[in-house]
Amino acid sequence: MLPGRQLPPGAGGFAVVDVEATGRSPWRHRVVEIAVVLLDGQLRAEGEFCTLIDPVGPVGPTHVHRISQADVVGAPRFREVAPALLELLAGRVLVGHHVSCDQAFLEREFARIGVPLPSIPTLCTLRLARAHLAGAGGYGLSACVEAAGLGWYPAHTALGDAQATADLLRYVTGARPDWSPPLTEAAGLPWPRLGRALSQRQAGALPLIRREAPYGPWPQGVEPPGLVLTALGAER
Question: Are 124 and 99 in contact (CB under 8 A)?
């Protein structure tokens, strides 16, 4: 692990994160897909990252996340994407729908490779939805997205969930509250850095495998298009 870095106050923004995992326990199960949607301090999109992850074992509940064992063949292991993830998350407020769950999986995966994460400020859209979507039939992400009228999205894909969470964040904070305190706190935290994995030092690009599906909404009775796996090369 390389020496940490500290960003100047006011830098950064939000990192909307979603993980799909091989099970419910961060201690016993592994991340099998991760997505990060970057937003600036005004919740404007800045970029996104997504890839399947080889969990080095069974992928878990395929009936939920629709990831098969064959899908992760050739996907990077968590250690291989960890340096890029640290760069994406550094200096940002962590956002998620039930963010403590995503945070726990991230912290445990980094702990497995000997990298402790700082105490990141977080923002939970589930909690915000309870206050701003009183008429929702439930507070899972799908129910909140439906109650907000945000349209169909590819649920239980990391990128689809992260994009929908970013849209939900904008919806439930339409008055644009002042996020200066958590943004300043996040920007002032020292973050660890990590060198490339030994297995990647001879490679020119990190192999990423991204699942995507077009957004809706889709008319009643029309089956949404299937997910597409796209192999990408991310420069390191």
Answer: yes
- What sign does the dihedral 167-170-172-174 (CA atoms) show? negative
Q: Quote the DSSP letter at residue 225.
A: P
What is the token pair recorded at 223? 């089956």
Pairwise CA distance, residues 145 & 108, whole Å: 29
DSSP run (H or E) holding 32 = strand 31-39
Give 82's contacts (C-beta < 8 A, 6+ positions apart): 109, 110, 113, 115, 194, 197
pTM: 0.88
CA-based nearest residue to 80, from 202, 183, 179: 202
Q: Which residues pair with 49 in a beta bridge?
A: 36
pLDDT tens, 159-172?
999 999 999 999 99
In one-letter notation, the amino acid at residue 154 is P
CA distance 149 to 171: 10
With contact defined as beta carbons under 8 Å apart, do 125 and 169 qualify?
Answer: yes
CB 158 within 8 A of CB 34: yes
Question: 3-state SS of 76-109?
Answer: CCHHHHHHHHHHHHCCCEEEECCHHHHHHHHHHH
